[in-house]
What does this fold into?
Amino acid sequence: MMAKFQQEFLSTVIDEIRPLLQEDWDEIGDDHLPLDPDFEGYEELEARNLLRIFTARVDGTLVGYFVVIYVPSLQSKGRLLAINDTIFISKDYRGKMLGARLFKFAEQCVKEDGFERMYVVVTEKNDIGDNLVGMGYNKIETRYEKVL
It folds into this structure.
């Protein structure tokens, strides 16, 4: 399977990304919140050069995305952190190393942007932690949530 990995802009992928966002939400979304992406917020981050959307396409069709947001570190003044916002590979394309290849592409691009580290958050509903460890990531924290 020939896949193409690239950085794209929200304005060029927004219509294609919507059904994948829904597929992602149906799989791992919060039972207490509706899917309601803040596309204006994403556009603002992109306009400030703080958003990266890396995509995977097969035969021109969008089959996955890896979104990274660059945020200031409040614990280390003057530094930006590269933190993933969302990662998704359509179910039909899993198990074919497409996700790992998309990760590698995103990592290379983030590194070229001058970052030394990338932080990735995974859900318990689709825990890919073992895959991340296999790609050289270290588990550094565990997050908990309580619905109030």
Q: What stands out?
A: The chain has a mean pLDDT of 89. The chain has one domain: 3-134. Helices lie at 10-28, 39-47, 98-112, 129-134. The first strand starts at residue 3 and ends at 8.
